[in-house]
Amino acid sequence: MKPMGALMRLSLFALLLVSACAQVSGDRAPSSAPRQTNWQSYIQEEALPGGFDEVFPDTNLLKAWQASTEVVFDKTPLMPYQLNEVPLACGDKRLWPTHPQQFTKEYLHAVYANYDTHKLPINSAACRRPNPTRRYCIQSTWANMIVMSDTFSDACGQSYRGYWLVT
Fold first, then answer.
1. Cβ atoms 89, 154 nearer than 8 A
2. What mean pLDDT comes out for the span 60-82?
């Protein structure tokens, strides 16, 4: 079994921090909301401006992104334009999860894409198993992206909701 390297490691990319809780300083007005109307465009423009090649190998061989059926949304998820980004209001810029339990997390976007195994080279990090003659890949991994959020607190007692991308 070969190591999956960078492909199978959990990659976290910070997207933005927004206030969803009380105690945001009154003299700090939220900046304008992100201009993107959906998470896919936000990810492409803001989180991965260099393209998906930053995270996934052989992105030119990815098929179309599809909504994930493994993530269930309890309600209609927020879109980037509905969020108000705020600066951290404390001198100490570190944040800690306020409730590490799963029930405080929200999933806002979950998509995956399969690789075209007919074209994927066997030396690609995305190829999990080449055929016995080692001429082509017969099983590949897949690419997935999830935007999720949780509640955080700073050293001054301010509460925030932070959003990030998991790939």
1. yes
2. 88
